[in-house]
Amino acid sequence: MSTSFKKGTAAVWAGEGNVNTAGAATTPIVSSVAFSYTDLDEWYEVSKGNKEGYIYSRNTNPTVAALEEKIRVLEDAEAATSFATGMAAISNSLFTFLTAGKKVVSIKDSYGGTSKLFLDFLPKYNVEVVLCDTTDHEGLEAAILKSCDVVYLETPTNPTLKIIDIERISKAAKKVGAIVMVDNTFATPINQSPLELGADLVLHSATKYLCGHSDAMGGLLAGKKKFVQEVFQFREINGATLQADAAYMIARGMKTLELRIERQNASALKIANYLKQHDKVSDVFYPGLESHKGHSIAARQMRGFGGMMSFSLKDGWPAVKKFLPALKLAHLAASLGSVSTLAGPPRTTSHVELTEEQRRQLGIPEGLIRYSVGIENVDDLLNDLQQALKLV
Ligand SMILES: *Cc1c(COP(=O)(O)O)cnc(C)c1O
User: Ligand 1: which of 106, 205, 372 to mutate, judged by most atoms within 8 Å of the beta carbon?
Assistant: First the structure.
């Protein structure tokens, strides 16, 4: 599909119709493990990668390929591939390019699982990891210019929604020939296009907004063809393959991506403004607020500020323990980006793997609440927050 269509259109149509099934109006789940050939020469050519086609579903599968095409068009990328989970996308991408003796520069605030890779796993393989203060752009540039092989970014970050200037950091990376990867899970391709801003690869936990219904897991990668192919070759052998049924669920969810994100952008801004003036709330972290430190960069590089926010209550953890269970319109759960509102304390969810001291260093108060705005009517969400805040 041409990339000249707008994103909302691409989300519906891209990748569809690639599977020949008597005109089925949606790409079906092709659950076959293997694909058969009557012509041995053709089989050989497809197996060698000289001809398009399917061999074995660990490598490629028609339903999965339809989803990959959707993200490729939405991110306006040369190529895309997929993984069993978001962490599989991240770890496969990092381990493909970071062999012994190589160096990665990243930020202190990346997703909890990604932090674990940086702190516990990559160093074991003799990879040098340099983690900079997330919003210290000068510090990041200085670390990059000392030379590195990969620059790994995430913006907005989890859970305090810090913002990094992708264009500025990509320029520094280009000077030393480093590959720039950006985790675009929070923003989605509706709100932010890292490749346009200079990144080489963009990653997603498709489990979150792309799927959007909290009912399937997956990871996606899009970007420069030669890099995507290298990661694909590693993934097909280590086996972190996305299943066809999960790919179907994610592609189905993605058809409403623009509708959901536009709604969530608008609701989150209203809710952030409401919380900001509430006398029981101490801090609200939302990049759409002018008071947010990253607001001006976000206003430049994002088309919308997203549905994620976090806030803390003046009375800390004891207040959180009363407030969260009082919410009627929020699943208290890990994860984010679903049609239904989800809320939870990062100390129990995204950053549970870290110690209290590590969380403190990241500027994550123990009483912080992460709030993922769903697609419910915003007046009901505001009323729900109001009644729960009354109880603390
Ligand atoms: C959830 C998440 C991941 C990991 O994705 P999984 O699908 O849970 O493996 C990575 N990055 C961000 C920003 C996330 O929110």
Answer: 205
Going along the chain from its start, the domains and CATH numbers come out as: 7-254 (3.40.640.10), 257-390 (3.90.1150.10)
Best CA proximity match to 276, nearest among 288, 266, 263, 261: 288
For the chain, give the percent of residues with pLDDT over 90: 88
Ligand 1 atom closest to the Cα of residue 88 is 9
Rg for the chain, CA atoms, rounded: 21
Within 8 A by CB and 6+ apart from 55, the residues are 34, 35, 43, 46, 47
List C-alpha distances in Å: 37 to 41, 42, 212: 9, 7, 37
* pLDDT tens, position by position, 284-341: 999 999 999 999 999 999 999 999 999 999 998 999 999 999 999 999 998 899 999 9
* Nearest C-alpha neighbor of 137 from the set 329, 249, 296, 273: 296
Task: Give the catalytic positions in this structure.
Answer: 58, 111, 183, 208
Q: How far apart are CA 256 and CA 258, in angstroms?
A: 6
Q: How far is the CA of 311 from the centre of ligand 1 (A)?
A: 20
Copy the structure tokens of residue 341: 């509102």
- Please give the full DSSP string across 356-390, using - where no structure is assigned: HHHHHHTT--TTEEEEE--SS-HHHHHHHHHHHHH
Q: Tokens for 253, please give them.
A: 């969810």
DSSP structure class, residue 196: T
334 lines ligand 1 (CB under 6 A): no
Ligand 1 centroid to 100 CA: how many Å? Answer: 25
Neighbours of 340 (CB within 10 A): 15
b/e burial code for range 113-133 (CB count within 10 A of at least 16 → b): ebbbbbeeebeeeebebbbbb
pLDDT bracket for residue 18 (50, 70, 90) = confident
Cα 63 to chain centroid distance, Å, stands at 21
Going 308 to 311 to 317 to 319, the CA torsion angle's sign is negative
pLDDT at 361 over 80: no
List, for residues 313-329, the tens digit of each pLDDT value.
Answer: 999 899 999 999 999 99
Q: Is the CB of 109 under 6 A from ligand 1?
A: no
